[in-house]
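Fill in residues.
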């Protein structure tokens, strides 16, 4: 089945038009006409092979929203015309301990990534959502609530569920105080979701000018983390922190803001290790540092349903597919609030 999109042919060349083959529809598959695809920072890392795992040609995109065009014979829960989404993974082993618990994102043999993963039917690598269509195992497809603006839903399938999953796993309760580190693609979703869940959200930033936007998004307080007095004011006051910054930084000042039994949850992945934290306050306050990766299909659907009930979408800027390289350049400069989304129909006849 033919598909057209944009691919990186090498790490040092810009994305260019690319025609390729998707697998033919299997019994449990659906064919999706892609309407929108989010531009995640990891797309840039992969296109430039900054993690050293990219295989070319590479079609990025794992925040996919579209309509079902066809279904396999064994698919009964989805029908032609349904508005659906596809996130970071499109398959897993299905039988390991994690998969049997409905936590496919922790598949012990490794889940199949939406792009640059192993295509288990026709061989080769999976190709992502910077394209006009995609064929996916229906178990890894989620339903999009009709109340949501589709152009702003795409980032929920990565940034949304990546922040939702830890909030649910650590059982965030109304009235608790949650810190969010960084106001980017992940951070702005963390603020929106935690606030809607009834938490009191404290946004930590090194950029004071982001304070107004943080309050607009639902934060109750903004702390400039480079200001010792402001950090002292929130000492021992937080139940949980979501650290959304993908750069190495000192964790000790953040640990000092947690109450006894508090959790510092790392969501961003830095390109170099964080400095080792001071163990003493962790021992005497029974603190924990944890990490979390995206979310399960079940969690993704729960998150979308919650967003549908509360009218939550990402703050996005729409671009055409041929503007991706410009978007990459602007992402590196932090010139987006807060996610680019490709309108796959823009510029088409």
């Amino acid at each position: 089945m033919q598909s057209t999109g944009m691919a990186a042919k090498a790490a040092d060349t810009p994305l260019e038009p690319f025609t390729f083959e998707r697998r033919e529809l299997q019994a449990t598959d659906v064919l999706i006409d892609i309407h929108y695809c989010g531009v995640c920072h990891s797309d840039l890392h992969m296109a430039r092979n900054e993690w050293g795992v990219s295989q070319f040609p590479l079609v990025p995109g794992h925040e996919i929203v579209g309509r079902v065009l066809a279904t396999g014979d064994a698919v009964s829960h989805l029908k032609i015309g349904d508005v659906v989404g596809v996130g970071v993974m499109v398959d897993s082993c299905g039988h390991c301990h994690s998969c049997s618990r409905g936590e496919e994102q922790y598949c012990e043999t490794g889940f199949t990534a939406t792009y640059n993963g192993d295509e288990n039917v026709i061989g080769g690598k999976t190709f992502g959502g910077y394209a006009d269509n995609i064929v996916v195992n229906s178990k890894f497809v989620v339903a999009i609530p009709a109340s949501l603006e589709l152009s702003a839903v795409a980032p929920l399938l990565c940034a949304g569920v990546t922040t939702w999953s830890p909030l649910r796993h650590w059982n965030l309760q109304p009235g608790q105080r949650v810190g969010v580190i960084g106001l980017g693609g992940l951070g702005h979703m963390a603020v929106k979701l935690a606030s809607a869940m009834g938490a009191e959200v404290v946004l930590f930033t090194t950029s004071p000018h982001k304070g107004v936007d943080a309050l607009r998004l639902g934060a109750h307080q903004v702390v400039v983390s480079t200001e010792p007095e402001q950090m002292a004011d929130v000492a021992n006051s937080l139940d949980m922190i979501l650290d959304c910054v993908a750069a190495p930084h000192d964790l000790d000042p953040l640990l000092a803001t947690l109450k006894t039994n508090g959790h510092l949850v790392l969501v961003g992945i830095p390109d170099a290790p964080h400095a080792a934290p001071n163990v003493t306050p962790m021992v005497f306050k029974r603190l924990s540092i944890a990490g979390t990766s995206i979310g399960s299909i079940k969690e993704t659907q729960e998150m979308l349903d919650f967003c549908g009930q509360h009218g939550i979408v990402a703050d996005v800027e729409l671009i055409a597919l041929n503007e991706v390289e410009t978007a990459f350049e602007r992402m590196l400069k932090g010139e987006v609030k807060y996610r680019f989304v490709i309108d796959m129909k823009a510029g088409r006849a």
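Residues 195 and 218 are 6 Å apart (CA to CA).
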